[in-house]
Amino acid sequence: TIAFGMGIDKPDIRRVVHYGPPKTLEEYYQQIGRAGRDGLASWCVLFFKDSEFTKFGSDFYVGLLSEEQRKIQESSRERFRMYCNASSDRCRRVMICDLFGEKPPFERCGTCDLCKLASSGAGATRDFTKEVRLICQAVSLGSGMLKSSVLPIIKGTFKGSGTSKYIEPSIAVGMPGLASEFKKSGVRGEILEELIPTLLEKAFLSKHSGKTVSSFRNFDLYSVTEKGSQLIDDLNAPPVILAPPQGLLEQERLQAEKVARLKKELKSAGVSLDQVPQAEFEAGDGPMLQAATRWVRLIASFRTTGQDEKANARETLLANIFRWRDRVAVENRMSPHNVLADHMAHSVAYSLPRSLEALVQIGVRVRTTELHELLANDVEMLGLSTAAPEAHGSASVGEGEELVVQLPSGIWNPPHAWVGAIYKLGSKGKLPTWEVSYNRFQQGEHPEAIAMKPDTGRPVKLNTVIAHLTEALMQGRSIDMTRFGQLMPSLTKEQWDSLDSVAVHLEKYFKQKDVARAILGHKVDTEFGQKTKSDRQDEAFWYERIRLFRLCRCIGFEPTFAPSAKLQPLA
């Protein structure tokens, strides 16, 4: 609290923490002066956002000051901003001495965070030419750029400013090319905003304040200086060598800690770290990293929920896949990796594909039929056969005499989209995950291949892909129902009538668990670990049929019933 600076003389204060900056550097210096008056080491910590300095220029804070007083306070505020955003090529004590016109007897104090950073080597200067040029190009597109607009313009995701979402013509014209250049550059987007305060100090950018109509709120507008324009125009300009901003170093520190934790997790689970490229660890993403992580966490989830049998069975399956791979590699005089890469082996053991076509589509090229047979045998012997949907109409329902729901065939348009369906783009304007799976399915890819090799790089269960395709129908998309129907369970007329009689007593858009409870009783509310194997199988059986029933209800499909026909599973 600022009030703490008012006359309290307590000598042994070890730490002063500011949650937000004071208005000027003089105020800050006076307040942190309360620390360490006994001569012992103390710490001063300041949490801030760059935008917090801008608000102090509004009439709310300076409206009663004279023009000269405003200029003095603005100068001190900007020096304070530079002090807070300083990089490791500066010293905080030297900066404070400069404010009061003092010449310290040292260039570096050796005790402030910037000096310690410099001595550790972490703050060594780097070439930021690509990053600075991108920022200057983005800022040059507008007639005064908000800091919050710079990164979206560089990425090509800028949607306009203000309530009208206005986009200046120069930005609309220049943004696509800039976004393309950004993607090619390999620059990390999170770096860019952190560099802007440094570019102000180094005179690549300039800044002036704007005000809202009420004058009670200020905002900063950025422009490119002559120095910044020269960098844009001259591709052979001298490199821009800067000390990395503290925000960037903090991001890198947190990322390094995350990578260390991830490596420890994988290593403790027996995963060879040599099989995962370091670039994937650093990016926190990639097919090999995702496959290994998903596998390790699947096994851990089984162990922590008391399902050791499942964990042991999965590990046995993976070991058998690796033994098969090593044998085939020797027989064919090939590298084991060229027979089946580690990440593909993990994906196969995770998703448990049942079709030969899916293995071919994910890239298995060596003795694919042999691997397919091994999977089929091991899944059965190890009790890993999931309660996967039977082919539509192929259930044992009275040797063809039982009436079952007849789904359409060929490309089919649902009668209407579900009224509760909301279309939302994914992060950074990407297609939602369900739509990516749907597009791949419509292009002929097997659902199991999509599950083992999704665009995210993280293998998923087959039922996840089925849920994506179900969502596509909910959204009113047409789909190949011949193939989709073969993923669905056989739903008899008797089962349909049971579900229908329950649903009429529930709300229009019922929850699946409410229907399951009405059919199976309150045992569905039992904790998962306390359910018997039989209970779990019953639930899986009915939930598959409830999902199909709910889909039909939501999209307005009225089924017809006919004797079951034995269809082949999706191949």
Any key phrases for this structure?
two-stranded antiparallel ribbon, two-stranded parallel ribbon, 51% helix, 571 residues, single chain, disordered C terminus
What is the overall number of helices? 26
Sheet bearing the most strands, described? 2 strands, parallel
**Residue share in β-strands:** 5-15%
Shape: elongated
Give me the secondary-structure topology.
Elements: E1 15-19, H1 25-32, E2 43-47, H2 51-55, H3 59-62, H4 67-85, H5 92-99, H6 113-120, E3 126-127, H7 129-140, H8 147-155, H9 169-185, H10 189-201, E4 205-211, E5 218-224, H11 226-233, E6 241-242, H12 246-268, H13 278-283, H14 287-304, H15 308-332, H16 336-339, H17 342-351, H18 356-361, H19 368-381, E7 403-406, E8 411-412, H20 433-442, H21 447-452, H22 462-474, E9 479-480, H23 481-485, H24 493-503, H25 512-520, H26 533-555, E10 560-563
Parallel strand pairs: 1-2
Antiparallel strand pairs: 3-6, 4-5, 7-10, 8-9
Characterise this structure.
- By secondary structure, the protein is mostly helical.
- The protein has 26 helices and ten strands.
- The chain has helices spanning 25-32, 51-55, 59-62, 67-85, 92-99, 113-120, 129-140, 147-155, 169-185, 189-201, 226-233, 246-268, 278-283, 287-304, 308-332, 336-339, 342-351, 356-361, 368-381, 433-442, 447-452, 462-474, 481-485, 493-503, 512-520, 533-555; strands at residues 15-19, 43-47, 126-127, 205-211, 218-224, 241-242, 403-406, 411-412, 479-480, 560-563.
- Strands 1-2 form a two-stranded parallel sheet. A two-stranded antiparallel ribbon has the order 3-6.
- Helix 15 packs across helix 17 (342-351), helix 15 (308-332) runs antiparallel to helix 19 (368-381) and helix 25 crosses helix 26.
- The termini are far apart.
- Mean pLDDT is 85; it is low at 387-400 and 566-571.
